[in-house]
Structures are given as structure tokens and as C-alpha cells.
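Progress narrative, Year 2. Work on GLOBIN domain-containing protein from Angiostrongylus cantonensis advanced from sequence curation to structure prediction during this period.
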Amino acid sequence: LSSIASLSFSQKQALNASWRLLRPQAPNLFRKIFLELEVVSCTVKQIFYKALCVDAFNKDEENIATMEVHVKLMVKFFDDLLVTLDDDTECIDRMKRIGSSHAVLARTCGFTSDIWERLGEISMERICSHEIVQKTREAARAWRILLACVIDEFRGGFDGEARYHRWDAHETKPLIQIKLGQIGIEAGVHITSPLP
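Result:
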């Protein structure tokens, strides 16, 4: 299991140096990553499509669920992450929060942990094979460690929160049945009253 703490000082330097060079191209790079993710995941494609449709009618504020906003958020995420690499706890917490914030999509859109794996595979391929990252062996190795850690923590945050929501949903169902029973309606029984 990869972790931020396992990155050496020289690997952190290589990450920051390569990110500075990669940064101007980062929006296009992440757009390509998300487009590839859409190809391998119909769920992601549907989420981005629905968000784009909603965004077309809502001009008041930016819809966080669109691909373009996700591109901006990923760039900002790596900007912020690379500045705080020495604070392992802060980095891990940030990653887990991002993963857990997507848990609601498990219930509403069929988002699964496999999507995180696909995102990791595509990101690893696109970023680690980029000519800027390939210039030094240290940078390529550091990006592989960092991306593995990011995806592990995204997935961990997502799985933990999604499990909580599944457990919570199972716990509330009996409560609903109890409440219905208290007012004289049995679960699964349809009561029809005669019209006056």
C-alpha cells in the first residue's frame, strides 16, 4: 500500500518540479482522463451528461458535477496537495473527504468503487507516460506512488461513507415500518377507503 509518508525528499522535489512544468497542460490532461473514464464507465458519462444538462438551465452558479468543473477541481487538488506533501495527515484527510463526498452517487447514480480503480488506471497511464514526467526516473516513480495513494484514499473515503449510507438506509426502513404500524398501516398492505 502506497502512502504519502513513503515519498522521499527527492521524490517530493521531483513531484513539485514536474508539476510546475506540467501545470500549464494540466487542464487538457485531466479533461482527457475524464473523457477516457466516460468511455469505460457509462455511469460517469451519465453523471457528467445530466450535470451538463442541469448546468445549461442554471446560470446562477457553477455546477460542481460537470466535467469542466471536475477538471478545474483536479488541477486545484494537485496544486494544494503538492504544497502540503509534508503533512501526511492533511493530505490523507483531503483525499478521504473527496472520496466520501462522492458516496451519495452510490445511491443516486450507481457509482461504484470500480470507477475509482478505472480513474486510477487511466490517470496512472496518462500522467506517468507524459514526457515531462518521463524525463526523470525519480519523477515517474514518485507520480506512481502519489497516484496510487490518491486513488486508495479516494476509494477508502468513498467506501466508508457509502457503507455508512447503506447501513443507515437499512436502519431507517424498520423505523418506517414501526411508524406506519403505529398509525394502523401495515407495510406492504394497501388500504383503500370507500369513497363517500
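The radius of gyration is 22 Å. The chain has nine helices and no strands.
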